[in-house]
């Protein structure tokens, strides 16, 4: 699903955010990406969804070499990736339903299909009863679940999450992780950036550790290191 080969990223100001990163994420795999603030986690995710371009090396996503993707084809790449952000980026002047419907409206889906898909997505995150609410009226955990529904509404094969539980207490964070697991169980690939090591340790998933732009560890099971 994702392949990085000797990928480096230098920002225009000279900051080297990624240094010769190599890894693969298989189809249907779920993995965590961790490391201190500034380690390069967000940058790595941004290269996958073409919010940034690699300076050197090769990024392949869903069998497409992103080095060769023209600006015009970026929307096509993003259509296959659901993105979840720490601040969930919801529109507070629209209902929950409209927030989740947004990606489908942009794609020009027929009205009935939008209704069906939005309700299916809200059902998956347990928020069907709140479709007419404004996100302002929801708790932090619920807002994040709306963000997740929006990310999965067009059923992308890959979900990327950047600190999805950054603003949530441990219990709500665990709930969000459980949701991610459910998507993984139906075949969705996930790469989840988080610096919450105790949360990662509760889950038994591959964990990629970054430090100063380098991938310094790649563990099959997060507990091997953090169980003491
Ligand atoms: P993380 O997500 O692990 O906190 P980032 O990928 O955000 O790490 O940042 C990696 C490094 O790149 C940091 O030193 C950060 O300051 C720098 N950086 C991130 N974005 C930019 C940018 N747009 N311009 C310049 N430097 C940046
Ligand atoms: P249809 O495929 O006709 O649109 P549904 O919307 O009911 O039917 O989805 C069928 C199944 O596919 C659901 O059980 C759903 O969990 C699963 N599924 C597959 N890929 C995804 C994805 N990216 N996000 C959410 N669910 C998915």
Automatic annotation (TrEMBL):
<dbReference type="InterPro" id="IPR027417">
    <property type="entry name" value="P-loop_NTPase"/>
</dbReference>
<keyword id="KW-0132">Cell division</keyword>
<dbReference type="InterPro" id="IPR015854">
    <property type="entry name" value="ABC_transpr_LolD-like"/>
</dbReference>
<keyword id="KW-0067">ATP-binding</keyword>
<keyword id="KW-0472">Membrane</keyword>
<comment type="similarity">
    <text>Belongs to the ABC transporter superfamily.</text>
</comment>
<feature type="domain" description="ABC transporter">
    <location>
        <begin position="2"/>
        <end position="228"/>
    </location>
</feature>
<dbReference type="InterPro" id="IPR005286">
    <property type="entry name" value="Cell_div_FtsE"/>
</dbReference>
<comment type="subunit">
    <text>Homodimer. Forms a membrane-associated complex with FtsX.</text>
</comment>
<dbReference type="GO" id="GO:0005886">
    <property type="term" value="C:plasma membrane"/>
</dbReference>
<protein>
    <recommendedName>
        <fullName>Cell division ATP-binding protein FtsE</fullName>
    </recommendedName>
</protein>
<dbReference type="InterPro" id="IPR017871">
    <property type="entry name" value="ABC_transporter-like_CS"/>
</dbReference>
<dbReference type="Pfam" id="PF00005">
    <property type="entry name" value="ABC_tran"/>
</dbReference>
<dbReference type="GO" id="GO:0022857">
    <property type="term" value="F:transmembrane transporter activity"/>
</dbReference>
<comment type="function">
    <text>Part of the ABC transporter FtsEX involved in cellular division. Important for assembly or stability of the septal ring.</text>
</comment>
<dbReference type="GO" id="GO:0016887">
    <property type="term" value="F:ATP hydrolysis activity"/>
</dbReference>
<keyword id="KW-0547">Nucleotide-binding</keyword>
<dbReference type="GO" id="GO:0051301">
    <property type="term" value="P:cell division"/>
</dbReference>
<dbReference type="InterPro" id="IPR003439">
    <property type="entry name" value="ABC_transporter-like_ATP-bd"/>
</dbReference>
<dbReference type="InterPro" id="IPR003593">
    <property type="entry name" value="AAA+_ATPase"/>
</dbReference>
<keyword id="KW-1003">Cell membrane</keyword>
<keyword id="KW-0131">Cell cycle</keyword>
<dbReference type="GO" id="GO:0005524">
    <property type="term" value="F:ATP binding"/>
</dbReference>
């Amino acid at each position: 699903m994702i392949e990085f080969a000797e990928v480096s990223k230098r920002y225009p100001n000279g900051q080297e955010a990624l240094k010769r990163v190599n890894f693969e994420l298989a189809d249907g795999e779920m993995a965590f990406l961790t490391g201190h603030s500034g380690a390069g986690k967000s940058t790595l995710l941004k290269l996958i969804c073409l919010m940034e371009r690699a300076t050197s090396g090769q990024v392949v996503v869903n069998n497409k070499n992103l080095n060769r993707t023209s600006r015009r084809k970026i929307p096509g790449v993003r259509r296959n990736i659901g993105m979840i952000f720490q601040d969930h980026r919801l529109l507070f002047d629209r209902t929950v339903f409209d927030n989740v419907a947004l990606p489908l409206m942009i794609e020009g889906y027929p009205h009935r299909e939008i209704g069906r898909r939005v309700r299916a997505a809200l059902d998956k995150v347990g928020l069907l009863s709140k479709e007419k609410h404004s996100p302002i009226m929801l708790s932090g955990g619920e807002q994040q679940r709306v963000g997740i529904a929006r990310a999965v509404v067009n059923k992308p094969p890959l979900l990327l999450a950047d600190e999805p539980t950054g603003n949530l207490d441990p219990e709500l964070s665990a709930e969000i992780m459980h949701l991610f697991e459910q998507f993984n169980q139906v075949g969705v690939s996930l790469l989840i950036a988080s610096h919450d090591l105790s949360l990662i340790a509760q889950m038994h998933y591959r964990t990629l550790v970054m430090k100063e732009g380098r991938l310094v560890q790649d563990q099959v099971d997060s507990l091997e290191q953090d169980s003491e």
